[in-house]
Amino acid sequence: MQARFTRRMALVLAAAGLWAGPSIVSGQAHAQAQSWPSRPITLIMPFAAGGGTDLLARALAQDLGERLGQQVVVDNRAGAGGNIAAGMVAKAPPDGYTIMFGTPGPLANNKLMYKSLPFDPEQAFAPIVLIAKSPLIVAAKASLPVKTLAELKAYATANPGKLNVGVPGSGTLGHITSVLLQKALGITMTNVPYRGTAPVVNDLLGDQVDLAMDFMPSYVPLVKDGRVRALAVTTTERSRDLPDVPTVQDAGVKGFEATAWYALAAPAGTPAEIIDKLNAATNAFLKSPKGQDALAQLSMQAVGGTPAELKAFISSELEKWGPVVKDAKISM
């Protein structure tokens, strides 16, 4: 009798629109995704304002706002190698109104280094699109008497403990690259972590740090103006923006490669319709003259593609860097 009553009441309530069964809830979610976006979107940026990564995020945010019909606001949340920003996005409602402009640390490598990471990047985020790639740069202040990696090795060997290296945060790709390059060259320098690229650049120009190992875009104009000296880039091929600067491999460190990359991600559970809209809008930006010009100015190479391709790329990065981080005993 009770079972029949319950079923009967459910039918009555459903007919009256007062009881939302699974199909109704699913329909509501679909309707919300179809009407998205109906208010401003927040793009969480894991580094301080002013650096090349931030400039790309802002160029993309402006374009997405125009394409989607709602403002996309960049919110800089620097610190902990990107984990502060990533933690915010991981806990945000999966409704498409909070997304992340991610880099290798928070979307992949931090999983390999932090002992108590409050989220698993492979589980906490829904991949949207791989935006671009760029090399890292090994840059020296203009007054440092070295012009090549070989001269850096000789100088650091002759002056143990004297040199320091600015990196854009503890555990960032710049930090890992610094550790690995020092190991490859057989030298020891002091890593100085900052909250993003802009303060690294300021202190390199102010002679507060001797070198920087960082995302490349912010340094290209400074190198061209002679304000800092580029010793090497970390990709397997030279940068088209600094064609005279050798790669680390050119300098004799065989097999060395470290590539910066930039991607969009949303909280896990974000409806596929929203992911697809963001993916399509970002790919359109990358193919547009505005997007190509923005990337060229920042010394970045457009990538684009599908959410599935970004997921596979992140998995390959973890597979690549896992043994490296373990061998170098990098732990946060």
Topology, element by element:
Layout: H1 2-15, H2 22-35, E1 41-45, H3 52-68, E2 72-76, H4 83-91, E3 98-102, H5 104-113, H6 121-124, E4 125-141, H7 149-158, E5 164-167, H8 173-185, E6 190-193, H9 197-205, E7 211-215, H10 220-224, E8 228-233, E9 259-267, H11 272-287, H12 289-297, E10 301-302, H13 307-328
Parallel strand pairs: 1-2, 1-3, 5-6, 5-7
Antiparallel strand pairs: 3-9, 4-7, 4-8, 4-9, 4-10
Helix pairs in contact: 3-11, 5-13, 11-12
Helix content: 40-55%
Q: Which superfamily, in CATH terms, is the homologous superfamily of the largest domain?
A: Bordetella uptake gene, domain 1
How many β-strand stretches? Answer: 10
Major sheet size, sense and barrel closure: 10 strands, mixed
Structural class: alpha/beta
CATH topology of the largest domain: D-Maltodextrin-Binding Protein, domain 2
Binned strand content: 15-25%
Uncertain parts: 1-6, 9-20
Number of H/I helices: 13
Tell me the name of the CATH class of the largest domain: Alpha Beta
Distance between the termini: 61 Å
What is the global morphology? Answer: globular
Mean pLDDT: 89
Can you tell me the CATH architecture of the largest domain?
3-Layer(aba) Sandwich
What are the secondary-structure elements, in order, as H or E?
Answer: HHEHEHEHHEHEHEHEHEEHHEH
Signal peptide: 1-31
Keywords: Signal
Pfam families: TctC
InterPro entries: BUG (IPR005064), Bug_dom1 (IPR042100)
